[in-house]
Amino acid sequence: MVKTPDCNVTEISKLIHHYIPTATLENNVGTELSFILPKNYAHSFEALFTALEQEQENLGIASFGASVTTMEEVFFKVSYMEESQTDIKAMQSSSQVGQSSNRNWNKNMSRNVERADPPTLNESPTIHFNTGCSLYSQQFHAMFVKRVLFNWRNWKLLLLQILGLIGSVAFLLSSGHTSEDEIIRQMDLGQYGQTIVPFSLSGNSDLAANLSKHLKGMLKSENQIPQEVQGDLLRYLRETKDCIRLCIVALSIESKPNIVVLTALFNNEAYHSPSAALAVLDNILFKSLSGADASLTVSNKPQPPPDGKDNEKPINGQQLALALQFGMALLISGYCLLTVTERTTKTKHIQFVSGVSVIVYWLSALLWDFIIFFASCFLIMGVIKYHKFDIYVMDYHILETMLIFTLYGWSAIPFVYLISFVFSGSTSAYIKLLLLNYFSGTLGFLIGNILENKQLTSMSNTTRTILGNSLLFFPNYNLAKCIGEYTSIYEMKILCTIYKNLSVYLNCSKENTEKSIYSLDEFMIGKYLIVMSTTGFIFLLLIFLWETTSWRLRTFLNQHIFFRIYKRYRKDIVAKELSGQSEDEDVQNERKRILEQPQELLNSTVLIKELIKIYFKSPAILAVKNVSLAIQKGECFGLLGYNGAGKTTTFQILTGEESPTSGDVFIDGFSITKDILQVRSRIGYCPQFDALLEYMTAQEIMVMYARIWGVSEPQIGLYVNKWLNSLDLESHADKLIRTYSGGNKRRLSTAIALMGRSSVIFLDEPSTGMDPVARRLLWDAVTKTCESGKAIVITSHSMEECDALCTSLAIMVQGKFMCLGSPQHLKNKFGNIYILKVKFKTEAKLEDFKCYVTTTFPGSVLKHENQGILNYYIPSKDNRWGKVFGILEQAKEQFDLEDYSISQITLEQVFLTFANPEKASSDEENEVP
In this structure, are residues 805 and 765 in contact, taking their beta carbons and an 8 Å threshold? Predict the structure, then answer.
C-alpha cells in the first residue's frame, strides 16, 4: 500500500484482521505499508479488497496492489524448513498474497546464524567511538599497520629491491680491490692485435729514409701493417674509414734543412694509445742509433700502496655516486606501489570517505617507508664497512654519510608520492618512476658536471644557473652530487696528508683542507643538503594541497568557468536537455518542493538540488541532467537505470569522487561543494567494483576500518565480529581477500560501507555476484541499518531487490529521472495489467476456461500455455482487485482449477517501459489491445 500523509495504519490493520485474522504486518517504512496474507484465506480476499477499495480514501491509502511469493522465497523456506525438520509438503501447497516478506525467513535464519540486533550493528550505546586526538591516533595506527602488512605479505618484492640496492654498491666496492699480483701491461701495439700504422715521409734526407726503413722492419716483425701515405697524413686519417677502427698510432717523418722532425699521432678512443705511439717513436730512434737488432720495451704496473695500507684503488666518487643512486632508485620507486593501487582501486577514496585525515594517511605512509629506507641504509653502511672503505665510516664520517642518506630519503619518498598521482597502474608507475629517478640522477649528474666546467660549454651564466637550479628538484641528482663531492673532498684531504709533494697538482693549503664540507661554496655539499631538506617539505606540502584543494579547484572550474562557457555557446542544447517540460509529474513536484522549501529540507539526510554533470569532451556528454531529490532518515532510496544512464556518475558526485558541474548536494546540511571533508565523514560507500586491499584478510581490513571510524580498542573485536557474522563472513575472516569469490568480496565491501557512524550509505550494485543466501543476508543487514535511522541509496539491476528494500526509487534514463515514488506507487501508476497464472487438475475444461477469460476480461491476452498451465495478461482498467478475486474464486470451482495466482505488473516491467520505451510500447500493443 502507498500511504497518504493522513494514513491511519491502526484502522487499516483492524480492517485487514477483520477479514483475515492471521494476516501479519510486514513493513511500515516511509510511504509504504505491506501485509502478508496466507493462502488459506483466499476465499476472503474478495471481501477484503472490496472493503479496501470502498474505504480507500477514509483510511488514507493512495493506492494498493498484490504480488505472489517468488521461487527464490520458496527455495529459502523449503531449505530452512528441511533443516528444522518441518513438513515440506505443507509448504509446497501454500502460497501467499501480498508483497513477499523477509520476516519469516529472518526467523528461520536466526536459528542457523547468530544475528546481531540493529542497534548493536550500528551506533549502539555500548559501542564507544573516539574523537579528537584519540581518533587521529587510532587512524594513524590503522594506516601504519596497513603499510606494514603490505610489505610483510610482499616480502619477496621488498627483499629484491633491497638486494638490488646492496648489490649495486657491493659490486662497485668489490671492483675497487686489486689482486695481489697486478698484471704488467706492455706498452706496444701488440695489445690491440693487428693494426694499420699510417706514416708519411717527406724530403730526401738519409736519416729520414733510415728511420722509415727501421719503422717498416719493426712493424712487420710485430705483425703490424705499415701504410706509407703520399700527401697530407691528417687528411688521410680523417677520410679513411678503416683508420677509425684499425689505426691506433701514426707517424710523420719530415726532412727540413739540417733537421728531421718526427711527429707521433694517436687515436684517443683506444686506451694507452699515447704511450704506444711514444714507444714506437722511441724504438725507431733507438734502432737508428744502435742497429736494427736493438729495441726498447716499455711496460706499466700500478704503483703499490703506501706501507700499512690495504691493496685497494682509490674509489672514484662519480662511479660510486652513480651506482648508489641506481640502487636507491630501485628501492625508492617501490614506495609508489601501494599508493597507486589504493588510488586506482578507489580504496584510498573509501578510506577518506570513512574519515581518514589526509595528514594521517600520508604521514603514516612516510613513517613506515622511512623505516624501511633507514634499515636499508644501515645495510649499505655495513657493506661499506666490510669492504674497508673508511672514507665513509671512519670516526664521525658515518654520521655524515647517514645524514646524506637521511635527507635524501626525506626528499625522495615524498617526491615518489607526488609523481605517483600521474600514473594509473602500479606496475607501470614503478617502472617509469625507476627510469625517472635513475636518469634524473645519472644524466643530471653528468649535465651538472658539464655546467660546472665553463670551458666545456658556451652557455651564458644565467642559462647555466637556471639549468643547474632546476636539477636540484630531483632527489637522485642531489644524492649523486653529495656522494661525488663528499668523496672528492676527502680523497683530496687524504692525498694532501700522505703525499706532501702533490701540492704541485692539488690545492693543499690549510684554508682548503680545513674547510667544512657543509660550506655553501662550490664543490661542497652544503647546498645539496639544504635543498634536500627543503624539497622534502615542499613535496609534502604539494601533496597536502592537492588532496585538500583539488576538489574545490575542480568544482570551481566546472561551475564557474566551463559551465558558463558551455551555456553561452550551447544555449539551445542546454535549454533542451535541462528543461523539465517532459518530466513526470512526481519528478516535477519533488523539484518544486525542494526549491520552494530549501530551509525546511536542509535537515534531510540527503538533499540534491538541480544537480548537473557534464563531461567536457568532444562532444560534451551530459551525464546527469537537473536532478533534485530529498532523502530522509531511515529511507532506502533505489536508483534504477540501464548501463550508461548516469547512476554511477551520480554516486560518484554524492560520495565526493566527482565534482558537480552545477547544483549542489547536502549531507546532514553540509554542502558537498564547500564542506567536502565534513561530507565525507558522514557517508559510507560501496563502489560498483570492490575497493579492497587483497593482501589483507577480512578480519584485518574490518579492524582497520573500525579504527578509522574510532571504535574504542577494547570493543573492536566484538564490533568487527558482529559485522562479519551479520553477512556470514566469519568462516572466511582469516583468509586473504585475494582468494575470495566475487560474491564474498561484495559482501565484505558492503559490510565496510554499513559499519561506522555514517548518516547515509551509498551501495552501488552491492549484490552483484552473490548467491541467493548471501543476497538475503545482505537484504537483512540493509533493512536493519535502515531501521537504525540511517538513510541508504542503492543501485541494482535486481528489480526484486529494489522492490524488497526500497521505500522509494527513481528510474534514470540518459541522466534524467523519468519517474519517482515508492515501488507500489510506480506499479499502480504505470502498470495497466494484471498477471494471471492458472494450473488445471485436468485439461478437460481448459478450452472452456479460455473462452470464459476472453469473455469476462475483454482485452486479455494469453501469453503462455504449457502442460495445463496458462499465463494471461489482463487489463487492470475497470477490473478492481475485489472483482477479480471474486470471479476467479468462482472459476476455480467451475473449471476444476488446481491453483491460481493474480498479481499486478512487476517493477521490472515498469523499468523496461522507461529503459526501452520503443520496445515496451510495441510489446504493449501486441499484448493488450
Answer: no
For the record, the C-alpha cell of 6 comes out as: 493522513
Which residue(s) pair with 664 in the sheet? 609
Whether 88 has a pLDDT exceeding 80, the answer reads no
Amino acid sitting at position 606:
V
185 forms bridges with which residues in the sheet?
300
SS3 516: coil
**Cα-based angle 375, 381, 387 (whole degrees, multiple of 5):** 145
Distance CA 448, CA 444 (A): 6
> Using an 8 Å Cβ cutoff, are 367 and 448 in contact?
no
Q: Helix, strand or coil for residue 41? A: helix
Domain boundaries, the chain: 1-112, 154-172+315-545, 186-300, 581-695+736-823
Q: Is the pLDDT of residue 637 over 50?
A: yes
* CATH 3.90.930 matches 186-300: no
> Looking at residue 928, what is its pLDDT?
33
d(CA 816, CA 120): 38
604521514: which residue's cell?
363
The CATH number of domain 581-695+736-823, selected from 3.40.50.300, 3.40.640.10, 2.40.50.100, 1.10.10.10? 3.40.50.300
Any idea what DSSP says for residue 560?
A: I
- Region of 544 (left: φ > 0; alpha: ψ -120 to 50; beta: rest) is alpha
Backbone dihedral region for residue 815 (phi beyond 0: left; psi -120 to 50: alpha; all else: beta): left
Q: Quote the CA–CA distance of 64 and 839 in Å, as a whole number.
A: 26
C-alpha cell at 866: 504449457
pLDDT at position 762 is: 93
Tell me the C-alpha distance between 801 and 784, whole Å.
15
Round to whole Å and give the CA distance between 279 and 273.
10
- Distance between start and end Cα atoms, the chain: 28
Q: Do domains 186-300 and 581-695+736-823 have the same CATH topology?
A: yes
Query: How many beta carbons lie within 10 A of that of residue 185, not counting itself?
Result: 15
* Grid cell listed for 261: 722532425
Cα(214)–Cα(289) distance, rounded to whole angstroms?
11
Say how far residue 446 (Cα) sits from the centre of its chain.
36
| Radius of gyration from C-alpha coordinates of the chain | 43
Task: Output the average pLDDT for the chain.
Answer: 81
Examine the pLDDT at 342 and tell me if it is beyond 90. Answer: yes
- Ordered DSSP codes for 593-653: HHHH-HHHHTTSSEEEEEEEEEE-SSS-EEEEEEEEEEE-TT-EEEEE--TTSSHHHHHHH
What sign does the dihedral 190-191-194-199 (CA atoms) show? negative
Mean pLDDT value of segment 525-551 = 92
SS (H, E, C) 256-292: ECCEEEEEEEECCCCCCHHHHHHHHHHHHHHHHHHCC
C-alpha cell at 540: 609534502
Could you tell me where the DSSP H helices lie in 622-758? 647-654, 676-680, 698-709, 713-726, 742-754
Would you give the distance in Å from CA 277 to the centre of its chain?
63
Instruction: Please tell me whether residue 563 adopts helix, strand or coil conformation.
Output: helix
Does an H or E element contain 837, and which? strand 833-840
Half-sphere exposure of 533 (CA within 13 A, CB side): 8
Counting beta carbons within 10 angstroms of the beta carbon of residue 192, is it exposed (0 to 12), middle (13 to 18) or buried (19 or more)?
Answer: middle
Instruction: Tell me the three state secondary structure of residue 496.
Output: helix
C-alpha cell at 471: 636539477
- In angstroms, the CA 834 to CA 903 distance is 6
Of the listed ranges 297-311, 412-426, 431-445, 510-524, the least confidently predicted one is 297-311
Q: What angle do CA 516, 518, 523 make, to 5 degrees?
A: 85
Asked whether the predicted pLDDT for residue 570 surpasses 80, the reply is no
Q: Which three cell numbers stand for residue 574?
A: 542546454
